[in-house]
Please model this.
Amino acid sequence: MGLKNISLSIPEGAFVVIAGMNGSGKTTLLQHLNGLLLPTSGTVYLSGMSVSENLARSRQMVGMVFQDADSQIVCETVFDDVAFGPENLRLEHGEVEQRVIWALRTVGLFDLKDKSPHLLSGGEKRRLAIAGVLAMEPKVLLFDEPFSSLDYPGVKQVLRQIVSLHESGCTILVAAHDLDNIIAHADRLVIMKEGRIVRDGVPARLLGELEAFGVREPSASRSGGKNPSWLN
Amino acid sequence: MLHRLDVRFKLMFFVFISVSSLRANIFSLFLLTIVLTAALMHAGLPVKSAMKDLRYIFLLLLFVFVARSLSVPGSPVIEIKTITVTREGLYQGAVVCWRLLIVIMTGLSFVTTTRPSEIKAAVQWMLKPFPGIPEKKIAFMMSLTVRFIPVIFDQAKETLAAQRARGIENRKNPIYRLKMLGIPLMRRTFEQADRISLAMTARCYSENRTDPRLSCRSRDWIALAGVVCLCLVIIL
Model:
């Protein structure tokens, strides 16, 4: 899906949910933020510098957790997979090890460090993908449909991780089409349709309009209540 | 102890023991079996799952044994019409199978005591002296293949189950069934390869990465001396 007339500015520390139907351009938008895709016209700026000017810097600063965790995990053990990013940054062995241990402890997978990723549960794989990105010490984290095909405990594990990363100062962008579990934590909602941003604002004001753009309104909001956090 | 040895030395041990087992007599094979069984027990090999994984190799060994027993001329032990099993055939079949078993046991000790990342590092190190060979790329591609074999098997199982649910077993033509399994499986594999490539790019993948850490210590040289002595005993 091509993007059209996108004008979006995201301040440091924000928690933004990007909602839209399948094919509305959410993933395409995210992939422009770390230079996986480059705009044919216009510029994406990251802390004042164009993303395309220094792709390595952009990809280090903006970590992306993909929808399919299996495709993101590339090494044969949990430890090696988390080390993959720091090794690509050509860090010293000691620094790589330090970062891997820190990232695995952060997502609670340290005890599984020697396990094959193939044997992890869905939620653990998603957390491993997050650890792999965290080890590169990004400032911004992009999550593409982070809860797809996860069971309830898996959703809670990943959600807890995302919220705690936001609390630690990371800027968070989550692309999702089901907002029930995430919207309580977001401070901004961007709705996309056919490659354009059609709404952008505080979630509470926009939830009522979601269904007009093919996105299900969260249950609590439908019954006129406030959306509770799934972590309570 | 075996786990801590340098992977390059372990690879050397694997080659030395495998090659010298080709010249081993019954006594040497017995000695090697004792040494390797001790090594495998020390390495903590999960015997049950290893036996399960190796079941087809054992079938192959059985085939080799039967073929040798029937094809080597000598004094007959059993004669049924035109089929003759000879004493020399039984002896040679047993020795060949035993040698192959030694190679398998050596390989098992290597794989059980070595992390995949160390094997990758060893491959990279071995290819480095050859000009024109992108050693880092080859080592990483090898490790990616190892990582994704179980994923591809899972996908094959899933595709097969979905086709069974739609009655593929009623079609008896094996080529048709192979085509119906192969095409979607290949499509999924290529799509996944695209996603992996994108995810690797997002994590700054380039050939210019931190080199793997390999270091040999005195224990590696001591182990090498031990293995060389063992091989000399076997050969001489």
